Amino acid sequence: MIKVTATVRLPRISPRQVADWPSNLNSERYQHWHRDHRRFEYLKKTDTLVGSCIYIEETIGGVVMRNIWDVVAFDEDRSILLKAESFLPTYLRMWADQIGDDTEVTSELMLGLSQSGLARLCDWFLRRLIVTQRRVDAIRQHAVEELEKLQHMT
What we know:
about 30% helix, 7 strands, alpha+beta, globular, Alpha-D-Glucose-1,6-Bisphosphate, Chain A, domain 4, seven-stranded antiparallel sheet, 4 helices
């Protein structure tokens, strides 16, 4: 499994404020969040967010990404886990940890298989053709920019 992780420390923000962000997200706020965000739409929204389905369109590293994400888990005090509706197993997890008066926020994109010898072959193939180091760097930079902007959006 390929993991792309970004962590940012946000002064004077609580984990709850960070976790509230997804439940109050709409298209306008999504586009304001990052200059490369194009479209956000709840295809289905539940009261607890778990079971919700989200369409997201954004540009990362010059490539337009269009994804449908299912909300698999949501802890309103700490974290969210999304699973992409795609051929390739893809998960996005974001969590927040209190550090004194600040909050450390981490975003982790996980691509590929997580078990078996087939996972190593899959990772090798992905790294050569799809998830190159250049793409990983672009994804990480995009995530850092998103997380840093949360300081002013919460």
